[in-house]
Amino acid sequence: MRNFSLVGLLIVLAIIGYLAKNMLAPQASHDPNDRSSVEFWVSHDANREAMLSYCNAHPDQQNSSDCRLAIAAQTQIDNKSSAGQSGQSGVDQGTSNAQDQLQAQKDANLLP
After folding, report:
1. 76 Cβ contact list (under 8 Å, min separation 6)
2. For each of the chain's 112 residues, which pLDDT tens digit applies?
3. pTM recorded for the entire structure
4. How far, CA to CA in Å, does 105 sit from each of 13, 91, 92?
5. Per-domain residue ranges for the chain?
6. Cβ contacts of residue 28 below 8 Å, gap of 6+?
């Protein structure tokens, strides 16, 4: 009898855990064929280009969900391609170390 109650308790805990996991899980879809995700628009070039063309031709529709997603996907693609094409090597000039090196070079150039 005691083993039966322990098994029942474990089953109830498993059911509660399963329900809690489903309720707390994010409802984001990662289906590549789901038009309501940016991943769809990134992976479907022809659809994205057609939607961007439509959105450019119809400025009143640019606030629609499909236009916003297509624009976001194009922005993401542009950011990735520009980061890959920069080919910058060495120290980034935005860092304090680069600023220190630049200032040292300027100071060295001023020496007689």
Report:
1. 38, 42
2. 666 788 888 999 999 988 888 777 666 656 667 788 888 888 888 999 999 999 899 888 888 888 999 999 999 988 887 776 555 555 555 556 777 777 888 787 777 6
3. 0.48
4. 67, 14, 15
5. 2-82
6. 37
